[in-house]
Specification:
The structure is a homodimer.
Chain A (H helix, E strand, L loop, with lengths): L1 E2 L3 E2 L29 H15 L11 E5 L2 E10 L5 E2 L2 E2 H15 L2 E13 L4 H17 L3 E10 L7 E11 L15 E4 L5 H9 L17 H11 L3 E5 L5 H13 L2 E5 L7 H10 L13 E4 L1 H12 L8 E7 L6 E4 L5 E3 L13
Parallel strand pairs in A: 7-8, 12-15
Antiparallel strand pairs in A: 1-2, 3-4, 4-9, 5-6, 7-9, 10-13, 10-14, 11-13, 12-14, 15-16
């Protein structure tokens, strides 16, 4: 399929086009529609895509692909509405840079340039804005990504929660990588770059809504070093990647199995989870597999190359706890199953509802 | 100068880099900082650019230029926070598509692909969202521009004003055009594609805050047809373009004369203004030259090609009232002067304050 003016989409995913009709029946939008789980999927696939005429076969993918005179580019945008603006290990400014860089990275593209738009609530102290602009600038500079422009809007008091930031990014595809759900095969291994759930639980604690303290910080960071290490070590044996933000690892993998018509079995004991995250999740009745991450990459790699990809991620600073956490199965049940050390198994679905609103 | 990873900025504007230090002293952000006038310029040049490290010489330009393997692209993003969401002649959905398309167009780039991100207030009726998604999709489809992806966030009730939309766009530079403030010369003519102020006054009336009725509608539309017509008729004799949105024609021209170190004289009687707009402005003590437009292009064209460029715009449907409204002068006063039919002259500055908040 083609984008306007001779720009072909370099890669497309099958199976979505037939669904492009309005099926969304909820009378109004609620928080869960923004949580990245089942309700988000219904809203996006059932309303946004058919009405806005989103011309991609992969509306839930992290970036769109464009081919410019033989150079393959990825193009993506995200809005950030995290509350509070600052939290242990990061802030909205950093998140807005890394979130968009990471969407490019897991699309196989090296981030190059960003645009950033601000919606500021009148009355916001300049000091707060200054801190976030500095965070934006430093995060981008740290990774050699240029902020090339943007836009600033101000709304009345009470009409935003301090500050919302949107970033749009453009990146160049790494020719060593070809990632697409359609490339995922039975037998492939599922890898993750590090401990899951740190970001979501950190945000929850930062709000002070629950009486719990933990020495935890957000994993907000660029995942490009992990992607590049895997590209070098495993190349096209890397079949699929995603940064498991809203909805967590379980939602990202459920989207994959539904799109691909396969199943995934996760080894619960292999999934790296910090004690603090596990403890908070037990207390709150949440599953770490549903908690958002902002600095992890989830990859599906051909079995023969999985160990090499794992070693490459582990060699990246901050990737020491990377792990192979599961395997793609032939079963056409389109389920993600978690197998515990005791041999028990349970099916883990996409995130339902919104236990942790506004985590990014 | 260069953007990351070998992407040169194809065009840059001189004179901004030396100013890239924090000079913004206001203790907090107020509505005027988002109005597109002097306060916006202070915020952007004095805080956003130095801290976020915006790596362009033209932070107030409409788009950034990127060169991909010899193909020149323009890349831009804007957030839309217009209140109310729907108004005579348009709505936020249309505005979000045309606003970004127009930023590309006046940068000399044919719009190709858009991304759209939504920040939705919980409780928004699906019907309202549906109407805006439809407006987005129809506006893009009407002009052969692909919406290739996006993002959806939901914030709590009271934390947004229904819906904010951000669009990011990418376009391909028209090789016939090279527009930059540095190309503007004394003697050049100033052209506008049609009557000014329709959008701003329509929004003002739509809010019902003032007891005034007028048969007026927003000029929200794509300006690409005007740009393309001028490219065909005048090519590189088109020296500079801008879509005069927030802050209106006066602010756009003041930015130009300040950047360029020249002056501009406008012929007041030549400026097309509808009676309804003129009447509302007189009543409110506003100048039509400060009122926002969402479907006009302001161009500076070499004198010898000005008539051809004008005729080309007038031949485009909706361009019948295009006019030559002024001339660039050698005087280094960096002022925009308005000359009336009676020979009186006045200096018109950039917009100060925010008489019309949230018009886009």
């Amino acid at each position: 399929m083609r984008v306007a003016d001779g720009l072909p989409l370099a890669q497309t995913e099958p199976g979505h086009e037939a669904r492009a009709r309005v099926r969304f029946q909820d009378p109004r939008i609620e928080m869960a529609h923004g949580a990245g789980g089942t309700a988000s999927r219904r809203l996006i696939e059932g309303l946004v895509v058919p009405l806005a005429g989103v011309s991609t076969h992969a509306p839930l993918a992290d970036a769109a692909y464009l081919d410019i005179a033989g150079t393959a580019l990825a193009f993506t945008a995200d809005s950030f509405v995290v509350r509070p603006l600052r939290f242990n290990g990061g802030s909205i400014g950093e998140l807005a840079v890394y979130g968009t860089m990471n969407d490019l990275a897991v699309s196989g593209a090296r981030p190059m340039a960003l645009l950033t738009t601000l919606v500021i609530e009148a009355g916001l102290s300049t000091q707060v804005l200054e801190a976030e602009l500095r965070a934006l600038g430093e995060a981008a500079a740290r990774h050699g990504v240029a902020i090339v422009g943007g836009d600033t809007k101000v709304v009345e008091r009470g009409k935003a929660d301090g500050l919302y930031i949107t970033t749009a990014g453009i990146g160049r595809l790494d020719s060593r990588l070809t990632v697409a759900a359609s490339r995922v095969q039975a037998g492939d291994r599922v890898l993750v770059s590090g401990p899951i759930g740190d970001h979501g639980i950190t945000i929850l604690l930062a709000r002070g809504d629950i009486d719990l303290r933990a020495d935890l910080q957000s994993d907000t960071r660029s995942v490009w070093p992990f992607v590049e290490a895997m590209a070098e070590a495993a190349g096209s044996a890397v079949h699929w990647m995603r940064d498991p933000t809203r909805g967590g690892v379980a939602t990202a993998l459920n989207e994959l199995v539904r799109d691909r018509g396969l199943s995934i079995a996760l080894d619960e004991d292999a999934v790296p989870v910090r004690d603090e995250v596990r403890g908070a999740c037990e207390l709150l009745g949440l599953d770490p597999l549903h908690i958002a991450n902002e600095g992890q990459v989830l990859a599906v790699v051909a079995a023969a190359a999985a160990d090499a990809a794992l070693a490459a991620m582990q060699a990246v600073p901050g990737g020491e706890q990377a792990a192979i956490i599961g395997q793609v199965r032939e079963e056409r049940l389109r389920t993600v199953t978690v197998v515990s050390a005791y041999g028990g198994t349970r099916i883990i679905d996409m995130l339902v509802g919104d236990p942790l609103p506004r985590i990014c």
